[in-house]
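for the writeup, i need someone to sanity check this before i put it in the appendix. the sequnce is what the collaborator sent (i think, or maybe the updated version? ugh). structure was predicted straight from it, no edits. if anything looks off just tell me and ill rerun, i have time this weekend
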Amino acid sequence: MNDSAQPRIHTVAPPPGRLEMLGPEEVRARLDEVRARRGYLLPHQGPMAAALPDLQDAYFVMYKSLTLTERHLDNFEKEFVWLCILAAAEEHIGTHHVQLFNESGATADQARAAWRLTAWAMGAKAYAFLDKHWQRFFPSVEAARSYQDGATTLIAGLGLPPATARLALIGVHTARSDHWGLAAEIEAAYAVGVPEPKIAEAMSLAMWPTGINRFLEACGVWLEVIRAGRVTPSPSFKVWAETPDQGGFHATPPKPPDQG
């Protein structure tokens, strides 16, 4: 990755104490720096530079950590999952990742595979409907197994490692808040030996285009899959699953008005 793609905290620091709107020259310097380092500029950088400079600094730290830091996914896996997530979220602005996908050495066949997997994941709701409403009418068409077997058949014809395909499907289900499909896909990923850290990283990529709550929800689905005994977690993830009271803040409802 060249230096222009490496975001950093801006040299034009916000003033200490209560934050006020930055002056024109400070805003211009921040925007010029973003363009110089990234090679392009998007509209949301302007309001952050002028009114939310501390958020802009944190934004680039988050971006670097999430998208540029090398963790568990290799470069191709990461950009393949990114492409599927962006397609599923209909995030047309994410053309930077189109370029990164091509630069990862991806082939035309692999690009076609990304679209086919994304389309398959987006159709999982048909199986969710079957499971929720009509499973008793079609007992021989077990919903989760049928979905997983269909995906396996699709993956077999893609020329793509099964683990990479499953990670992409997990990313799509996370981005779309498709909890039923995600649970089925987590189970399938464990079955083909996808390492848990890769599953976590694939899920986390959805945070950028679709928000942190999609990642939070996905982790909740994963937690329930483990607790239901559908997969066997590693010792580290078992500790997480065994940790009680992960439901968040418990708000107290208001007392009813006095009827006396």
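Confidence is low (pLDDT under 50) at residues 1-9. The CA atoms of residues 120 and 151 lie 7 Å apart.
thx in advance!!
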